[in-house]
Amino acid sequence: MSTDPAPPFRPHSSHWGVFSAAMRDGELLVRPHPGDPDPNGIIDNFPAALRHPARIAQPMVRRGWLERGPGPDDRRGRDEFVPMEWNAVLDLLAGELRRVGMRHGAGAVFGGSYGWSSAGRFHHAQSQIHRFLNAAFGGYVASVNSYSSGAASVIVPHVLGNYEDLTKNNVTWDQVAQHSEVVLAFGGMALRNAMVAGGGISEHVERGAMETARARGCEFILVGPLRGDLPEESGAEWIPGIPGTDTALMLALVHTLVAEGRHDQAFLDRYTVGWPVFARYLLGEADGQPKDADWAARITGVPAEQIRALARRLQGRRVLITVAHALQRAEHGEQPVWMGAVLAAVLGQIGLPGGGYGYALGAIGYYGRRANAVPGPTLSQGRNRHGNFIPVARIADMLLNPGTEYRYNGQTRRYPEIRLVYWAGGNPFHHHQDLNRLRQAFARVDTLVVHELAWTATARHADIILPATMTLEREDIGYSSHDPLMVAMHRIVEPFGEARDDYDIFAELSRRLRVDEVFTEGRSSREWLRHLYARTEEALRAQGAPALDFDAFWEAGSLRLPQAPDDGGPWRAFREDPDANPLPTPSGKIEIFSETVAGFGEASCPGHPAWLPPEDVPAPATPLQLIANQPATRLHSQLDFGGHSAAAKHRGREVAMLHPADAEARGIADGDIIRLFNARGACLAAARVSPDIRPGVVQLPTGAWYDPENPEEDRPLCVHGNPNVLTRDVGTSALAQGCTGQLTVVEVERFTGNLPPIRAFEPPSAKPEA
Ligand code: PGD
């Protein structure tokens, strides 16, 4: 029986939702924010994760690095560790930072350190590490764009305008609920994605908005291989097209609209440039192939009559076109993003309430919401004077090919020679593709430093690993630009083992490097929170809005912020007066043909949207398409050792879905352990046989921790189910060089061998120095 019947629940926040938590008899209790209509179950990963053996208890140094010093070493990831006490390890690391800085300069340090880390705005690991490297070296080699939207964020500014506005200040869920008549969702709008928002989210509204819209008569149509990519509440009609072929389907919809005179020529004339060039391609005048429904049926697997009927249903109605981020996380990912806008323009819907182009609506919880009318707390990262960068998903290329040229966004660039990689708040052995290649890349550097709260594969590959606190173990402020609730994230529990806040680690290192005044500005963490909060408080007071001082905010636990009106953003303004409110594109209009993009001369991304047949297509040895999408029971790989994530696995393995026809052809039954494989690698998973997937497609979500059976092999079997051993490490195109991890090809077989144990959550072997 509990000795403490009324533990104090204190406010906290995470990317997957605002919640409160308390400790009772050594157990963590969590409960969602009472105002959240549809809380995200992922918060249930916290209790079992908090004191799990997978947590890192003390600093460690890889034995080979300690004994032989910095340098390339392919034993990273399978070497033993030596525990160290904090002062000794910080001295050691400060010495290595000095060595690399003095001998090779900032251009030899990769601090791109991509990753979502945790929700608080001060202990945001990316801000902390960038600020530290700017203070220590005056800069570092950075990364640009994200694994989420690498292709979209590069093509959109050339052809549509501001990427942030397109995703964040555009069609809202309120508009969908009230105005949309048809929502045509390419790739769907899966709730598992919208349930997550960087910086925290207090109300999950998407399910309710779709339910309300449907009750009003709105029709939802899902184009994509997975039925579950729109929730049941939407009542969606499912068009299970072949993955990666959406651009062809969109082209055929536009072709039908044009051929039958159903398009809005007045809109195209007034608001777009380049239609005549595109029309020549569409109608086949440029290449002899009209992009009509019969043509598209062969590519997409959707019958021609169904395509034509769908096009006709769109005319004269308030139509919202959405394109999921997932579609651009594939070869030629720029094309569906651009073509979705062309379809919305041809329908004349852009800028209307609940209509037009809601690119990536539903991909993240802060899309489709009103923006806050006051700024939130933001830690300055300082200035990176070095200035070199790579597109984020090109990390293995960079490490493996120093000095080599590559194309990006119209430029020819060169990969730098990196000696030291410093990572905090991310897990490249989760987020990167072709993990066997990534292992080779990490074997090349002199030193890999990682701050982590748990023994991820990235931590296991580090030379110096410093244990970081988990969000529940420190104070912070939760804030997202499109959620009205700013949260005073109270500390719920003392740090695990010897774990320290990233800030405190960097503060100690900066003291050793004599840059602590620049890095800390003399503030403790609490003083920083007070300092960062002041910006919001001042903005509230300037607007005459109710404001609390910091102490009152901390005591209250949260503060509701005023929000900007739901006015359709720049797209509505552009529609109302395109001369007064031009888009920030070269022409000020929607660019259906872009002279800028055409001028780059890339065959992989021509001057107008086009169907570009992919290289990575089913073949006799790999006849199935693999969708490696976002998981539902954790955020990426975070807290994969938590209870909610573990409960969704089968026999400890991640679950892969496949169609009954594909299962039967391979003698696979529901619940069997299967092996997925291709030329790059292989992993195990548990089979879920379901008709909710298109035949010929297998789905295995990301996030199960990489767990190589025999790490000394070149291509070890991942026994846990990490699909990134199978995915391809190639850019979307020479334009954006985005991540293509969403889609590849594989074969699947029933696994009949002895089932290897899961070791991903066991700490690696560590012995004190003799
Ligand atoms: P996370 O698992 O969120 O994945 O990749 P990302 O690297 O962001 O990693 C965050 C890490 O930070 C975790 O290991 C966590 O323990 C650690 N962490 C949390 N809080 C703290 C902290 O305070 N301090 C420190 N030091 N560490 C902390 C996500 C990326 O994966 C993304 S955004 C996308 S969209 C991509 N999606 C796909 C995909 O669709 N398909 C494939 N195949 N691959 C993908 N990879 C990408």
From TrEMBL:
Record domain Molybdopterin oxidoreductase: where: 55-511
Presence of the UniProt keyword Oxidoreductase in the record: yes
Domain Molybdopterin oxidoreductase N-terminal: 12-51
SUPFAM superfamilies: ADC-like, Formate dehydrogenase/DMSO reductase, domains 1-3
Family matches, as InterPro entries: Asp_de-COase-like_dom_sf, CT_DMSOR/BSOR/TMAOR, Molybdopterin_N, MoPterin_dinucl-bd_dom, Mopterin_OxRdtase, Mopterin_OxRdtase_prok_CS, Prok_Mopterin_Oxidored
Entry cofactors: Mo-bis(molybdopterin guanine dinucleotide)
CDD domains per UniProt: MopB_CT_DMSOR-BSOR-TMAOR (cd02793), MopB_DMSOR-BSOR-TMAOR (cd02769)
Pfam families attached to this UniProt entry: Molybdopterin, Molybdopterin_N, Molydop_binding
Sequence intervals crossing the membrane: none
Domain Molybdopterin dinucleotide-binding: 624-738
Keywords on record: Metal-binding, Molybdenum, Oxidoreductase, Periplasm
Domain of life of the source: Bacteria
Family membership: Belongs to the prokaryotic molybdopterin-containing oxidoreductase family.
Name this polypeptide is given: Molybdopterin guanine dinucleotide-containing S/N-oxide reductase
Record organism: Sabulicella glaciei
Taxonomic classification: Bacteria, Pseudomonadati, Pseudomonadota, Alphaproteobacteria, Acetobacterales
